[in-house]
Design goal:
The protein has five helices and three strands. With about 180 residues, the protein is mainly alpha-helical. It has one domain. A three-stranded antiparallel beta sheet has the order 2-1-3. Strand 1 and strand 2 form a beta hairpin. Helix 1 packs antiparallel against helix 2 and helix 1 packs parallel to helix 3. The longest helix has about 35 residues.
């Protein structure tokens, strides 16, 4: 005895579990991709940045004027790392996962925010300890490196904006148009 075969029409919702599973896979791929990209970006940011030094001056800290360039460089290098990482991530992910472009563009923009958060947190962990705590144990005039943290927090928006721009670049410029096979 065989079970009856029930045929469903394409619009009857039979593909709903498959669509949800595909969307969940896309979410997982984007989350893992951007978490790893953020961690790699943090290591690159840490390696290329020259951390400014601050000196102990009595009960306070002071910074030489020439160290301000290095302080600005922290944000500048974050900008470069986030721009390159975001653009490449957006292009690669949209070229790889073309099933639902609208969902992928949304996920890439959110993933860029995740990458920015991971980069900032990992960079803070990789850099030196808080400078004021380190200065307490030093003699007058001794120097310590500043922490690897953003001084202009708006720079963190570069990751999601660059990822979104990379995704749109892939969709509108780099993608080959699909031809109907009818």
């Amino acid at each position: 005895m065989t079970a009856p075969v029930v045929e469903t029409s394409p619009g009857s919702g039979s593909s709903h579990p498959s669509t949800l599973r595909d969307a969940a896979i896309d979410v997982l791929i984007v989350a893992v991709w951007f978490a790893m990209a953020g961690a790699v970006g943090a290591v690159v940011w840490w390696q290329v940045t020259t951390l400014p030094k601050i000196s102990r001056a009595g009960d306070s800290a002071s910074q030489a004027p020439d160290q301000l360039v290095n302080q600005v460089g922290i944000d500048g290098w974050f900008f470069v790392v986030a721009l390159v990482g975001g653009l490449l991530s957006g292009i690669v992910l949209l070229a790889w996962r073309r099933r639902d472009p609208l969902l992928m563009v949304f996920l890439v923009a959110l993933g860029g925010g995740l990458a920015a958060w991971v980069t900032v947190r990992t960079g803070l962990a990789l850099g030196p300890s808080p400078e004021l705590a380190a200065l307490r144990d030093l003699a007058e005039g001794d120097q310590v490196s500043m922490q690897l943290r953003l001084h202009a927090p708006g720079i963190a928006w570069v990751w999601p904006i660059a990822a979104l721009m990379g995704a749109l670049l892939q969709l509108w410029v780099l993608a080959k148009p699909e031809r109907d096979q009818t």
